[in-house]
Description:
7% strand, two-stranded antiparallel ribbon, 2 strands, elongated, mainly alpha
Amino acid sequence: MTLPSTRPAVAPLGRRLIALAVDWLACLLISAAVAPTTGGLWLTRGDPWVTLAVFAVENLVLVGLAGNTLGHRLTGLRVQPVARAADDRGPAVPGLVAGAIRALLLCLVIPAVVWTGDGRGLHDMAARTVIVRR
Length: 134
């Protein structure tokens, strides 16, 4: 489904990458605090699987219930259902099912780095969401 040109445009890639970096940094800090390993810088001492799990939970809960993560909020972005972006109907936030689909595919990385013609990642296509400026 292609978004109409009269509706909010898909957020620019630069903002999305900054938001991702902020979210990953926050998850690294949590992981280093709750599941520390030895060696390296303090920031990188968290267990990688715990970091990924924290990232998944953050995306599931915050995107599903609030429509944005910490990184999205700081960069002025939000995730919303395509129906909301296309014709102003539907919920303002994706919901937990869409949040779960999006988080799972985001953690797999490949669906997130493959985009469609309108700039949406495959994880957003599967979850029927779009990330836009607030």
